[in-house]
Structures are given as structure tokens and as C-alpha cells.
């Protein structure tokens, strides 16, 4: 027996199978998709068996070494998916397969798994009443009112020493569990009785047919209940389901809702799981022990069989496309898998991606709508504040109106969400004397000041340096920080509203494991009045007490030079507005902007997606952007400026010679020309139909295969430039 093995090297030069002989003793265990170890040059490498045959065109074949795992890792469906991914992304085949697998199963040597345990506490109800508790102990005990057990990290903030005492007195029992399931949101284990609008949507989804549905439902329209109901029906048919969410650690409430309803049937592929846990979950899935997989982008590869529905929540999210190679699109993979399994795909959003809505309009997707909030709740009222005018009367970065509204909301014992899409203290630091601005030594980007750690940081490459005492250029003590980030807003809130309890949530405060979830639960428990943060606070959160949403500066995303900046701004404003007034009380939104007449900002105040869609479509048509044209973006980079400028012109000429139906723009320097010490040019291709596009680009990639001075990155249908 001879096998064709695809080895672990993600190198274009070895992007094919190599033949090996199989020792007779192993023949029985060899299958397509099994992971094996083989000699390769002087190394021992892992790889996947993609072919089994009796003869080979090569002579003197080496013998394979061993079989790594007993199970088949890549089933027939995944093997085909990988081949399709390679065609669509032009990435090496092995990297397509690696992208589908948890680390422990990737063909990669020397990976060992260590199990991690979560520690949590259970309340010993029998003896708690016998003790007289102090205030901080009582605070901890109160948390158990609605929960059986609580994760250690969620209790630490209160008082570690009180916790210790409670454990010593055996009022709390410490337990270790391999996999912990949250249980701290309110209990509701059944699906709500659907409203007639939700019912109608559910009835329109044909579970026996391969069809793509786009559910356009305003924020708070109850899309989650629709998902739950459909999955319940799928499970009743003994089928399985995949649910994709933009980023699983940012959507604990959604995941928890699914766990409440479906319990052990669910595998939640959290990014916070250890590699060992991810490996366990993957095996549970492939053994058929779970019916529902919920997770971010890569969960689309979950080895479920008999899939009955694939749901993609917040389908407009950029996160469904992988930024690095293989640059696959989870939505496309979903559609491919749905046709293999003959099941529907349901994509939901309050602000669908323009391309998706256009497809729904054309009838390529079936459009489903939830135009109203659940049970007649109204959309929040939105007010724009023109900061060109209000700046004169403002305190710090707050207009009087916003500040007053925050005060009133807190006085009513309600909660506020504030959005500023920029972390750190200031956007840059410059000298008042000589106007010198401090930049990253590796990138064409000014450094951001982080006051709490007193460092200047590059948000692109991570470079950090201590805030200098005087100007590096003129040596005067006249450096000042300009612009605003979440840290500065937090400081201003402390000054203007000293009694308000402010919780800041951004990448700097949520980097520790479990922090994000903890913050969401303590804000929900009303331990804070204001949740201040970057776009993290705009996503999928459902807090009944939030009646005011404030946007400090709506223009941050608008000023990004990208054809999607209007769309992204509109989406972000609608999404964050949608956090207000979701329960019984009326919601309000205040948006501060220097561009109050811009259509993306103006139309967001009426939550008017349809009007935005039409306006934006007109612009896209005129400028020949998606959905009217497809785009392919080539990024060509090098550390050597001279070589780079020569080669980009050659590449452009090669493209021009071959692509007769394509508009070719550039080469032009990228918006950030120098990044991590490499220089970058971009070429934009716009086309409606270009049959030889992939071939042409592949030829160019092959031409530069052995040229290590030039790197070419290819982005088909990029989410941004
Ligand atoms: P969306 O995802 O569309 O923004 P959600 O699914 O979060 O909206 O629902 C908004 C709120 O309405 C949630 O608090 C949810 O529990 C509640 N809800 C949804 N459907 C129903 C229903 N049929 N009956 C009662 N409450 C519902
Ligand atoms: Zn940098």
C-alpha cells in the first residue's frame, strides 16, 4: 500500500502530496484523512493521508513512520472544503486544513496538551444561616441568590479575604471542574412564546431545503428567540446546528441563552478555552455527542454530521473573514456546507452588509424581516449634537446635554452606555514648542498615550516606550497629549460626575481571561452606573436598565479612508443605539459629532437602514465599488524601497497584460506606508466577471515564490483596505 501525504510545511514549494510506503502491520489502520508521521529530508514531519493507492510514479519510496491518532481527523467533507478554500484564497492546501483544526490536531509536531481546571464555589445552604456575616461576606452570599455556583474570577473583585474566610468556615465549598458552565444570568430555561412576527419568520424557513435566508431584524426585535426556535425544530428531527457569532468572548449573554435552553447538547467553542479543552470539544463533536456548536469564525468547520441549519448572527461583522492566510470567508464556507447537507443558512443582522441585502433584493437570498421591537417596545429616540457649535459650551469632551442626560439617568437609578471607539488616553503626543509628534520607530503611525501605565504605545505593532520627560526634538519640557481615548473620558467622568460608578471596558481592561464576562455580569447587577468603552460595548448586549446611550464622537470610524467607512459608521451607531431602552423603560440616545449632516450619521438617528442602503448603493454604483463590482486587493511589501517600487510596476504590467475586463488602480502606497518596518504598496482590482483572475494572480505568486525580498498578500473581496 502506498499513501499520498500532505505534510505540515505551509510552504508553496511543498504544496502537494508526497508518496510513502505503508508497513503491512499498519495497513488496516490507514484511511483517508488520518494523521501520520513521515520522514521528510532529514526531518520527521506530520501530515494527512489524502490518497491511498497501489503504485507510485516515483521510485525508492520511503516508509511512513507511524499513525498519530486512531481516528480520522479530516473526513470527506472537510477534505473537499479544504480544496475549495485553496482555490478561493490561493493559500497552500495544508494551511487550509490547519485552519479547520484545533491546535492539538493540526499536523504539527511536539504539541502536548495540559488540562486546565476552573475553580468555582457552591453555597452550603444548610449552614449559612447559622453565621453572622459581615457586609462584604453578605455581598458575596447575595450573589448566590440566583446561582448554584460561581466562577472564582467572578468573586475576586469583592474581597479575596472574605472569600477565604467563607471557605474556611465551609459556608462556601470550593470545587474544581474541567469545564465550567456559567449560571449567573437570570434563569430562563425555556424559549419565550414567540410573538406573531417571530412566528411568521420561523414558519418561512424551510428546514428541508438548501436556501440562504437573510433576517433583517431591528435591534431588540428578538432574533435570538427565532434562532432558538429553529434549532429546537432541527433537533427534533435528530439533526444538528452550527451557530456563528462574531466573537464568542464578546457575546457571553447570547451563548448563555443557548446553554440555558439546550444544556449539555451544546459545545461552545470559546476562545478562552485551553487547547486541551478545545481538543476535547472537537472530539465530542466528531463523536456525535453534541447537537449544537456555537462559536466564532472557525466553528464553521465543526465536524458535525447531519447538519440541519447554520445560523450566522450579526452577519455584517468583519470577523467572519480571516485576516491572515488562508483568508477564508466563514459565510461562504457556511453556504458550501449547507448545500452538502441540504439545509438552510440563516444570516441575521439589524444592519446587513450591503452585499447581503443587495442579494436579498435580487432574490438570491430570501429576505425575512422583523421591523419592530418585541412586544411593541419603541426604538430609542436619537438626538444629534453638533460639536462644531457645542464645543464652546462643553466640559471636556462632553456637551452640556449629554452630561445632564447622564446625571438624570443615574438619578433615576438607570444605567448608561458610553461609546468612544478609541482606547488609550490620547491619540497622539506632540510638542507645543516645535510641533514634533512622537511616532512609532517601525510604523508610520503616531503613538498613543496610555496614562495608567505611563507608556506610549503603537496600536499597530505593539511597540511601547516610556513617556519622555521632554521633547525628543527640541528638548523643551513642552510635550502635550492631544486627542481623546477611553482613558481620558474615564478621567473626565470622575471629575464632572464624581459619584458615578464608571466601568471602562476596552482591550486594555479586558485582556485578562474572564474579565470581559465578569464586567458584563457586574454591570448587569447594577454595580456600576456607566459602562464606557470601545465598540465592544455596542455588540449584542442586553441590559434592561440601560436607558441612555451616549456616543462621544461619531466621527472616528467615518474618517478612516475606506470605501466601507460610511457603512461601518452607520452600523456601529445603529448597533450601539440599539442597547438603549430594551426593557420596559423608554430609551434615549445622544450622538456627538462634527459631521451632523453626513448621511451615515443622520440616517442612523431614525434607524433607517433602507434609506441608508439606497443612498449608499448609489454612491457605490458611481464609484464602482461592491456590490456593483467585486474587489481584489493586492498588498505588496518589502523592506527595500527600491526593489519594491520596481516590482510593483512589473506586477501592474503583468496584470494589465492579462486582465482585459478589470479596472486596475495603483500601485499606490498603503494608508500606513511603513508598518513593522516593511513598506507596502496596494493595487486594487475591480471586476464584474474576470475568468482568468485567479490563474493570473496565481502565476504572479508563483513568479515570486523564491523571491524572499517581496511578499504578496491577496485579499479577495476584502472587508477593508
Ligand atoms: P436582537 O438580537 O434582535 O437585538 P434579542 O434577541 O436580544 O434581540 O431580544 C431582545 C429582548 O427581547 C431580549 O431581552 C429577549 O429576551 C426579549 N424577547 C425576545 N423575544 C421575546 C418573546 N417572544 N417574548 C418575550 N420576550 C422576548
Ligand atoms: Zn508600530
Summarize the structure.
The chain is 29% helix and 23% strand. The protein is an alpha/beta fold and 721 residues long. It folds into five domains: 104 residues, GIY-YIG endonuclease (3-Layer(aba) Sandwich); 62 residues; 178 residues, 3-Layer(aba) Sandwich (Rossmann fold), CATH 3.40.50; 182 residues, P-loop containing nucleotide triphosphate hydrolases (Rossmann fold, 3-Layer(aba) Sandwich); 87 residues, Ribosomal protein S10 (Alpha-Beta Plaits), CATH 3.30.70.600.
How does this model look, in words?
This protein has 721 residues and is α/β, with parallel strands linked by helices. It has five domains: 2-105, GIY-YIG endonuclease, CATH 3.40.1440.60; 117-178; 196-373, P-loop containing nucleotide triphosphate hydrolases (Rossmann fold); 377-423 and 485-619, 3-Layer(aba) Sandwich (Rossmann fold); 630-716, Alpha-Beta Plaits, CATH 3.30.70. It is built from 20 helices and 30 strands. A seven-stranded parallel β-sheet has the order 11-12-10-13-14-9-15, with helices on both faces. Helix 1 (76-89) crosses helix 2 and helix 6 crosses helix 7 (223-236). Mean pLDDT is 90; it is low at 179-186. Bound molecules: adenosine-5'-diphosphate and zinc ion. The site of zinc ion has 8 residues, from loops. Residues 440, 442-443, 445, 458, 460-461, 463 line the site of zinc ion.
Amino acid at each position: 500500500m502506498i499513501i499520498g501525504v500532505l505534510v505540515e510545511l505551509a510552504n508553496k514549494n511543498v504544496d502537494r502530496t508526497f508518496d510513502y510506503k505503508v508497513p503491512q502491520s499498519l495497513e488496516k489502520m490507514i484511511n483517508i484523512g488520518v494523521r501520520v508521521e513521515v520522514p521528510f529530508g532529514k526531518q520527521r514531519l506530520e501530515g494527512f493521508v489524502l490518497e491511498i493507492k497501489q503504485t507510485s510514479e516515483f521510485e525508492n519510496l520511503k516508509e511512513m513512520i507511524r499513525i498519530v491518532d486512531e481516528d480520522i481527523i479530516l473526513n470527506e467533507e472537510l477534505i473537499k472544503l479544504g480544496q475549495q478554500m485553496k482555490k478561493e484564497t490561493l493559500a497552500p492546501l495544508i494551511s487550509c486544513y490547519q485552519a479547520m483544526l484545533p491546535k492539538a490536531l493540526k499536523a504539527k509536531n511536539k504539541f502536548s496538551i495540559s488540562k486546565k481546571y476552573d475553580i468555582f464555589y457552591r453555597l452550603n445552604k444548610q449552614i449559612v444561616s447559622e453565621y453572622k456575616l459581615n457586609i462584604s461576606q453578605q455581598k458575596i452570599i447575595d450573589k448566590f441568590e440566583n446561582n448554584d455556583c460561581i466562577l472564582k474570577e467572578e468573586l475576586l473583585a469583592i474581597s479575596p479575604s472574605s472569600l477565604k474566610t467563607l471557605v474556611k468556615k465551609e459556608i462556601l465549598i470550593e470545587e474544581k471542574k474541567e469545564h465550567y458552565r456559567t449560571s449567573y444570568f437570570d434563569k430562563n430555561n425555556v424559549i419565550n412564546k414567540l410573538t406573531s412576527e417571530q412566528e411568521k419568520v420561523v414558519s418561512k424557513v424551510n428546514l428541508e431545503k438548501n436556501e440562504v435566508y437573510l433576517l433583517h431584524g431591528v435591534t431588540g426585535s428578538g432574533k435570538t428567540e427565532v434562532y432558538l426556535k429553529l434549532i429546537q425544530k432541527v433537533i427534533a428531527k435528530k439533526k444538528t446546528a452550527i451557530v456563528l457569532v462574531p466573537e464568542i468572548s464578546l457575546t457571553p449573554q447570547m451563548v448563555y441563552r443557548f446553554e440555558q435552553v439546550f444544556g449539555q447538547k451544546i459545545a461552545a467553542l470559546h476562545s478562552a478555552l485551553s487547547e486541551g479543552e478545545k481538543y476535547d470539544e472537537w472530539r465530542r463533536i466528531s463523536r456525535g455527542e453534541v447537537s449544537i456548536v456555537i462559536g466564532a469564525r472557525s466553528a464553521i468547520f465543526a465536524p458535525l454530521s447531519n447538519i440541519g441549519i447554520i445560523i450566522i448572527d450579526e452577519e455584517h461583522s468583519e470577523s467572519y473573514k480571516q485576516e491572515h492566510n488562508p483568508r477564508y470567508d466563514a459565510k461562504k464556507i457556511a453556504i458550501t456546507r449547507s448545500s452538502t447537507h441540504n439545509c438552510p443558512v440563516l444570516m441575521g443582522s439589524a444592519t446587513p452588509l450591503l452585499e447581503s441585502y443587495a442579494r436579498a433584493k435580487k432574490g438570491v437570498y430570501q429576505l425575512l424581516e422583523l421591523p419592530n421591537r418585541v412586544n411593541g417596545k419603541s426604538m430609542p429616540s436619537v438626538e444629534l449634537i453638533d460639536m462644531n457649535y457645542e464645543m464652546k459650551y462643553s466640559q471636556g469632551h462632553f456637551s452640556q446635554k449629554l452630561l445632564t442626560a447622564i446625571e438624570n439617568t443615574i438619578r433615576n437609578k438607570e444605567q448608561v452606555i458610553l461609546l468612544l471607539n478609541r482606547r488609550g488616553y490620547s491619540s497622539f503626543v506632540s510638542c507645543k514648542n516645535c510641533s514634533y509628534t512622537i511616532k512609532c520607530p517601525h510604523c508610520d503611525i503616531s503613538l498613543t498615550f496610555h496614562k495608567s501605565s505611563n507608556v506610549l504605545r503603537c496600536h499597530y505593532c505593539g511597540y511601547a516606550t516610556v513617556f519622555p520627560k521632554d521633547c525628543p526634538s527640541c528638548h523643551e519640557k513642552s510635550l502635550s497629549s492631544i486627542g481623546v481615548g477611553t482613558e481620558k473620558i474615564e478621567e473626565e467622568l470622575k471629575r464632572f460626575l464624581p459619584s458615578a460608578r464608571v466601568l471602562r471596558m476596552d482591550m486594555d481592561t479586558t485582556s485578562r481571561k474572564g474579565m470581559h464576562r465578569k464586567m458584563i455580569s457586574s454591570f448587569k447587577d447594577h454595580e456600576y452606573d456607566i459602562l464606557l468603552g470601545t465598540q465592544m460595548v455596542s455588540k449584542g448586549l442586553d441590559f434592561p436598565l440601560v436607558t441612555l446611550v451616549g456616543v462621544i464622537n461619531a466621527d472616528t470610524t467615518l474618517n478612516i479612508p475606506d470605501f466601507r467607512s460610511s457603512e461601518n459608521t452607520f452600523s456601529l451607531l445603529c448597533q450601539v443605539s440599539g442597547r438603549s431602552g430594551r426593557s420596559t423603560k423608554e430609551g434615549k440616545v445622544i450622538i456627538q459629532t462634527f459631521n451632523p449632516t453626513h448621511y451615515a450619521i443622520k440616517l442612523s438617528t431614525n434607524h433607517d437602514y433602507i434609506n441608508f442602503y439606497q443612498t449608499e448603493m448609489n454612491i457605490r454604483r458611481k464609484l464602482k465599488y461592491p456590490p456593483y463590482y467585486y474587489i481584489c486587493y493586492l498588498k505588496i511589501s518589502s523592506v527595500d524601497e527600491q526593489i519594491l517600487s520596481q516590482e510593483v510596476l512589473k506586477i501592474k504590467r503583468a496584470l494589465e497584460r492579462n486582465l482585459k475586463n478589470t479596472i486596475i488602480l495603483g500601485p499606490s502606497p498603503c494608508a500606513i506606508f511603513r508598518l513593522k518596518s516593511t513598506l507596502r504598496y496596494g493595487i486594487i482590482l475591480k471586476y464584474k466577471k474576470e475568468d482568468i483572475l485567479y490563474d493570473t494572480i496565481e502565476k504572479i505568486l508563483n513568479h515570486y515564490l523564491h523571491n524572499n525580498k517581496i511578499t504578496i498578500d491577496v485579499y479577495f473581496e476584502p472587508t477593508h483596505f
